[in-house]
Design a protein that fits this description.
By secondary structure, the protein is α/β, with parallel strands linked by helices. It has 2 helices and 6 strands. It has a 6-stranded parallel β-sheet, with helices on both faces.
Protein backbone atom coordinates (compact mmCIF):
# COMPACT_ATOMS: atom_id res chain seq x y z
CA UNK A 1 0.00 0.00 0.00
CA UNK A 2 1.37 3.39 -0.99
CA UNK A 3 1.32 5.86 1.86
CA UNK A 4 0.87 9.49 0.88
CA UNK A 5 2.85 12.06 2.86
CA UNK A 6 1.09 15.32 3.58
CA UNK A 7 3.49 18.26 3.38
CA UNK A 8 3.62 20.22 6.58
CA UNK A 9 4.50 23.85 7.01
CA UNK A 10 6.30 25.47 9.91
CA UNK A 11 4.78 25.22 13.37
CA UNK A 12 3.45 28.49 14.83
CA UNK A 13 6.44 28.76 17.18
CA UNK A 14 8.76 28.74 14.15
CA UNK A 15 6.95 31.55 12.34
CA UNK A 16 8.33 35.05 12.70
CA UNK A 17 5.61 37.66 12.91
CA UNK A 18 5.27 41.40 13.26
CA UNK A 19 2.24 43.35 14.34
CA UNK A 20 2.40 46.82 12.85
CA UNK A 21 0.65 49.30 15.11
CA UNK A 22 0.17 53.04 15.31
CA UNK A 23 0.26 52.55 19.08
CA UNK A 24 -3.45 52.95 19.70
CA UNK A 25 -4.62 50.10 21.91
CA UNK A 26 -7.83 49.49 19.94
CA UNK A 27 -5.84 48.84 16.78
CA UNK A 28 -3.01 46.88 18.36
CA UNK A 29 -5.27 44.59 20.38
CA UNK A 30 -6.94 43.26 17.21
CA UNK A 31 -3.68 42.31 15.53
CA UNK A 32 -2.06 40.82 18.64
CA UNK A 33 -5.29 38.93 19.36
CA UNK A 34 -5.24 37.29 15.94
CA UNK A 35 -1.56 36.35 16.21
CA UNK A 36 -2.00 34.77 19.64
CA UNK A 37 -5.13 32.93 18.54
CA UNK A 38 -3.10 31.09 15.91
CA UNK A 39 -0.32 30.38 18.41
CA UNK A 40 2.17 33.06 17.43
CA UNK A 41 3.76 35.61 19.75
CA UNK A 42 4.48 38.58 17.47
CA UNK A 43 7.00 41.37 17.70
CA UNK A 44 5.01 44.59 17.94
CA UNK A 45 6.37 47.31 15.68
CA UNK A 46 4.95 50.66 16.77
CA UNK A 47 5.14 53.30 14.11
CA UNK A 48 4.51 57.04 14.05
CA UNK A 49 4.47 58.63 10.60
CA UNK A 50 5.82 62.12 10.33
CA UNK A 51 4.24 64.97 8.42
CA UNK A 52 2.91 65.08 5.77
CA UNK A 53 2.23 61.32 5.78
CA UNK A 54 0.47 61.47 9.13
CA UNK A 55 -2.41 63.35 7.49
CA UNK A 56 -2.33 61.92 3.96
CA UNK A 57 -4.29 58.84 2.86
CA UNK A 58 -2.15 55.68 2.63
CA UNK A 59 -2.70 55.48 -1.13
CA UNK A 60 -0.55 58.62 -1.47
CA UNK A 61 2.43 57.16 0.40
CA UNK A 62 4.81 56.49 -2.51
CA UNK A 63 7.62 55.35 -0.18
CA UNK A 64 6.01 54.12 3.08
CA UNK A 65 9.28 53.36 4.89
CA UNK A 66 10.34 56.99 4.43
CA UNK A 67 7.18 58.13 6.20
CA UNK A 68 8.38 56.85 9.56
CA UNK A 69 9.28 59.37 12.22
CA UNK A 70 12.15 59.05 14.70
CA UNK A 71 9.88 57.48 17.37
CA UNK A 72 9.06 54.51 15.14
CA UNK A 73 10.41 51.01 15.57
CA UNK A 74 12.72 50.03 12.70
CA UNK A 75 11.18 48.35 9.67
CA UNK A 76 14.09 46.54 8.05
CA UNK A 77 15.24 43.03 7.12
CA UNK A 78 15.17 40.30 8.00
CA UNK A 79 11.53 40.43 6.95
CA UNK A 80 9.11 38.30 8.97
CA UNK A 81 7.06 35.38 7.67
CA UNK A 82 3.84 37.12 8.70
CA UNK A 83 2.71 40.72 9.18
CA UNK A 84 -0.60 41.61 10.79
CA UNK A 85 -1.71 45.22 10.81
CA UNK A 86 -4.82 47.19 11.65
CA UNK A 87 -5.77 50.55 10.17
CA UNK A 88 -4.49 52.77 7.37
CA UNK A 89 -1.00 53.38 8.76
CA UNK A 90 -0.40 49.65 9.10
CA UNK A 91 -1.90 49.02 5.65
CA UNK A 92 0.68 51.17 3.89
CA UNK A 93 3.57 49.64 5.80
CA UNK A 94 2.33 46.03 5.64
CA UNK A 95 2.07 46.18 1.88
CA UNK A 96 5.55 47.77 1.74
CA UNK A 97 6.99 44.88 3.80
CA UNK A 98 5.30 42.37 1.49
CA UNK A 99 6.81 44.13 -1.51
CA UNK A 100 10.28 44.46 0.07
CA UNK A 101 10.29 40.74 0.95
CA UNK A 102 9.61 39.82 -2.65
CA UNK A 103 6.16 38.55 -1.67
CA UNK A 104 7.51 36.10 0.91
CA UNK A 105 5.88 37.88 3.87
CA UNK A 106 2.23 36.89 4.26
CA UNK A 107 0.20 40.00 5.02
CA UNK A 108 -3.02 40.14 7.00
CA UNK A 109 -4.82 43.47 7.11
CA UNK A 110 -7.41 44.02 9.82
CA UNK A 111 -10.11 46.54 8.84
CA UNK A 112 -10.67 47.90 5.35
CA UNK A 113 -7.26 48.89 3.99
CA UNK A 114 -8.34 51.78 1.73
CA UNK A 115 -5.76 50.39 -0.68
CA UNK A 116 -6.18 47.82 -3.48
CA UNK A 117 -7.10 44.45 -1.96
CA UNK A 118 -4.44 42.62 -3.96
CA UNK A 119 -1.68 44.33 -1.94
CA UNK A 120 -2.58 41.93 0.91
CA UNK A 121 -2.85 38.17 1.20
CA UNK A 122 -5.82 38.31 3.58
CA UNK A 123 -8.12 41.09 4.76
CA UNK A 124 -10.17 40.58 7.95
CA UNK A 125 -13.00 43.05 8.45
CA UNK A 126 -15.97 43.29 10.78
CA UNK A 127 -19.15 42.27 8.96
CA UNK A 128 -20.80 45.61 9.78
CA UNK A 129 -18.24 47.44 7.60
CA UNK A 130 -19.77 45.88 4.49
CA UNK A 131 -16.36 45.42 2.84
CA UNK A 132 -16.06 42.78 0.14
CA UNK A 133 -13.03 41.50 -1.77
CA UNK A 134 -11.94 38.07 -3.03
CA UNK A 135 -9.35 37.81 -0.22
CA UNK A 136 -11.56 39.28 2.53
CA UNK A 137 -13.10 37.46 5.48
CA UNK A 138 -15.85 39.05 7.55
CA UNK A 139 -15.96 38.65 11.33
CA UNK A 140 -18.93 39.21 13.62
CA UNK A 141 -17.09 42.00 15.43
CA UNK A 142 -13.59 43.23 16.11
CA UNK A 143 -10.95 40.73 17.14
CA UNK A 144 -9.32 41.00 20.55
CA UNK A 145 -7.01 39.21 22.99
CA UNK A 146 -9.59 38.01 25.50
CA UNK A 147 -9.91 34.24 25.72
CA UNK A 148 -12.14 31.97 27.78
CA UNK A 149 -9.28 31.41 30.21
CA UNK A 150 -9.14 35.18 30.87
CA UNK A 151 -12.88 35.60 31.51
CA UNK A 152 -13.98 36.26 35.06
CA UNK A 153 -17.16 34.95 36.56
CA UNK A 154 -19.02 36.69 39.32
Amino acid sequence: MLQQTVPRGPKPAEITAWVISDGTIGMEIQSVGLARTIGIEPVVKRVAPRLPWRVLPARLWAFPFLSLGPDSDPMEPPWPDLVIGTGRVAAALSSAVRNASGGKTFTVQMQAPHLPHDLFDLIVVPEHDGYAAPNAVATLGSMHRITRSEEHTS
